[in-house]
Amino acid sequence: MAAKAGDNPDSLMTLATVFCLRNLRKTMCYQGFRNKLCMRSDIFLPSEICDKLVNTYMELVHTDSNFEPREIFFQLFSDPRSTRLTRVQLRENFVLDRDLEAIRKQDLIELHLTYCNNLSSRSLKTLTSFRETLVSLSLFGCNNIFHRKGAPLACTEDTEDEDEDDEIPASPQTLETDFSFQGFNRLRLLNLGGLHEDVEAENLLKPLRSITSLDLSNVHLQGTAFLTQWRDRLASLVLYNVDLSEELVSTVLELVNLRHLDISRESRRNTKFKMTRKILTVIVQRLVNLVSLDISGHIMLDNCTVPHFEEAMGRPSSEPCKSSIYPFQELKRPLQFLGLYDTTLCNVTHIPAYKVTGSKNEDQVLNAIEAYTEFRPELAHRAINQLFDIARIQHCSQLLRALQLVIAALKCHKYDKSIQVTGSAALFYLTNTEYRSDQSVRLRREVIQVVLNGMEQYQEVTVQRNCCLTLCNFSIPEELEFQYSRVNQLLLKILEPARQDESIQRIAVHLCNALVCQVDNHHKEAVGKMGFVKTMLNLIQKKLQDRTCDQVMEFSWSALWNITDETPDNCQMFLTCRGMSLFLECLEEFPDKQELHRNMLGLLGNVAEVKSLRPQLLTPQFITVFSNLLESKADGIEVSYNACGVLSHIMFDGPEVWTMDEPRRDAVMDRMWEAIQSWDVSSRRNINYRSFEPILRLLPQSIAPVSQHWATWALYNLVSVYPSKYCPLLIKEGGVSLLEKVLELESSQPETKDMARKVMEQCETFKEDPMETNNGQETAIGGLGSRRPGS
C-alpha cells in the first residue's frame, strides 16, 4: 500500500531526544543539592547530541503545552568537559540573559537568536565569550539586546547572583555603547535584522573584516559606503524594508561577488522608490554572479515587461532569452530564486527562475510562504491568506507541501495573531473531505497539535472559531483521542458563561457531544471531573433564561445523555447541579420540542440505571411527569420508550420503596403496559446500545413484571430490526440464557414469554445465517460506545 502524504516516521535520534527531555531525571540527570538538577558525572555528550537536545528543547517549549520548561536547563550544558555545544537556535521571550551566560564556556560556531526580547546588554557581554569560534550569528528581532537592564527601584543588600535582573525589562533609554565586534575574526554570517535605530550599524560592523553574508532587514542606515569594505567577500546581502536610494543602489552595484541580493519591501504602499527598467538592467549586468534576487514589494514601471501579445506566445519558459521581463533577458542562466511577491511582474508568462514568489498561482504562493515564514510573518500571513482562497475556491494540487508550510508557520509564530487567524482558516479547507484520503495519521496529528496551540494561546473569536471548525474535519473521538484531555479542557473553557459568541458556542458544544459519544467510561469520568456536566447545565440555564431552544440547548442535553451513560459519578453530578429542576423547566418552557424531550429522557434513563440514585427520582412530581410522558408521540416512540425505561428501573426496586400515596404504583404500571402495547415493534430506532447489561438485569425477576416486559420488548425490537448488530451482542452478554429463565418464571406474563421466544428464535436464525441484515435496512446510528441520537 502506498504511503500517504506526511507519513515518514521520526528518526530514532529524534524519538530518543524527546524522551530524554521529558525524562531528564531518569536519563541524563540526578537531583543534587537543594533539588537542583545536575548532569550525571559519568556522561559525556558530543555536539551532535547536545545541539539536538537544546534545539529540540526550544521546539517543545513553543509547541507542546504539556512540556514544562526548566529554569536550569541551560546550566546542564555549562561544562564543556561533559557537554559540547556548537550550533544553537533559540527563539522568543523564554530565553533569558542567564541562559546564555550558562553556556558561555562552550565553543559555539553558530548562535541564532530570534525575537529574544528578554535579552539585554548582559547577553552582549556573553557573546564576547564566543568571539574566537563564532562563524554564524543572528540577533534577528532581539529588540532590547543593545540596551541595559533598568535598575531596581530599591536595593538594600547584595543578591547572591544576577538572576533576579532577568525579570527587569531592558530600558530603551539606556543604550549599550561599550560592545564591539572586535575579535570576532571568524564571523562570516551575521543577521542584525530589526537593529534598534539608535544603534549605528556602520560603527558596530566596522571591526568585521571577513563577513560573507549580512542581513540588515528593517535597519535604518545613515550611510551606505561602509558596505564596500566587503566588496570582494560579500556573497549575500539582505536589505529588506531598507529605504532604497540611488546612493544605496550604487553601493550595492560595487559588491560584484554577490550571489544573493534581497532589496524587497513589505508593501508597495510604503515606498517612494520606483524600480525602473534601467535599475534592474544594471543590477543584472553588474552582479553577474547572482543566483538569487528578491525585489518583492516594489513599484514596477510598465516598461519593464514585453508587450502582452508577445509574451503570451508559447508555453511558459525559464530561459532568459524568452523572459517577459526585459532586464532579465540579460541573465546568462536562470536564477535559482526570484522574489516578485506583491509586484506586477509575477503575473507575466516567462520568468527566468526556477523558484518564484508571487501571487499568480499556487506554486508562487507556496514559495512565498516557504521563503518568508521565519523572518517576515507579515508577508507569510498574506501568502497564507492567498493559499486559503486557493484551497477554498479552486483546488490545492500540492497538498502535502501546503499543509507542512502552514503547520511550520503556525509553530514558528505561535504568538502572532494574524498568522494564527489565516493559518487556522487555511487548515480548515486543507483538511476537509476533499483532501482527507491523501493525508497520513501523523500529518493529521500535527494539524491537531497546532490547532490546539492556537486555541490555547488566543481567546479571540476568529481564531477560536477557525480552530473549532477545523477540528470538525476529523473523526471524533478517534483522531482526537491522543489529545483527549487537552481538547476537552479547551472546549470547556470556550463554553464558560462569559463567552457570548453563538457560532463558537454551537460548534464547541457539538464537539463536546461528539467527544463523549464513543469513548470508554474512564474517559467520561475524567471529563466529568473537569466540570463537563456543570458547564452543560450552565449553558442550558442560560438558554432557559433567554427562552431559547436552539442547537446549543439540544446538543447540551445530548452531551449530558452521552457523558452519563454507565458513569454513576456523572449521573450524581447531574442531580447535584440541579439537573432535575432544569429538566422540569425545559419541559414546561418547550412542550413541543421533540428532540429536546428525547435527549432529556435518554439522560434520565442513564440516571435511573444507578440504583443508589433512583430514590432521588421517586417523588410525586417526577413520577407524574414520567407517567404523562408515556403517552408522548414525540420522535416516534423514543420519548415514551425512554420514560417507560426510567419507570421500569424504579419499579424494579419493589413496592416497599414506593412511599407516596399519589400516584399509586399499580396505576403507573397499568399506564406502562398500555404504552408498551401501543408501540410498533418494527419501529426503527434513533438509539445505539453498546451493552445490554442495564436491560438484562430486568429479565429474571418477579418484582415488576412490567419492567420485565419492557426489557423483553426492547430486545425484540432491536434484534429484529437490527439483527446483525444486536444478535451477536445479546448472545455475547448471555442474554439467551436469561430469556430462558423468563420462560421458567411463573410470574412472567404470557405476552412477555411469547416475545422472549421470538427474541431467542431471532438469535438462533442469525447464528444459522449470520449474513442476514434485515433486507439491508440497518443503518449506523450514533456510534459504538453510546446510546445517543445520530449525529
Automatic annotation (TrEMBL):
Q: Which residues form a coiled coil?
A: none
A Pfam family annotated for this chain is ZER1-like_2nd
Q: Which ranges carry the Protein zer-1 homolog-like C-terminal domain?
A: 410-764
Keyword annotations for this protein? Leucine-rich repeat, Ubl conjugation pathway
Region (Disordered) residue ranges read 768-791
Q: Where is the Zer-1-like leucine-rich repeats region domain?
A: 203-343
Q: Which domain of life, per UniProt?
A: Eukaryota
Keyword presence, Hydrolase: no
Which InterPro entries does the protein's record reference? ARM-like (IPR011989), ARM-type_fold (IPR016024), Armadillo (IPR000225), LRR_dom_sf (IPR032675), LRR_Zer-1 (IPR056845), ZER1-like_C (IPR055142), Zyg-11_UBL_adapter (IPR051341)
Indicate the family of this protein: Belongs to the zyg-11 family.
Q: What is this protein called?
A: Protein zer-1
**Annotated source species:** Ilyodon furcidens
Gene name of this polypeptide: ZER1
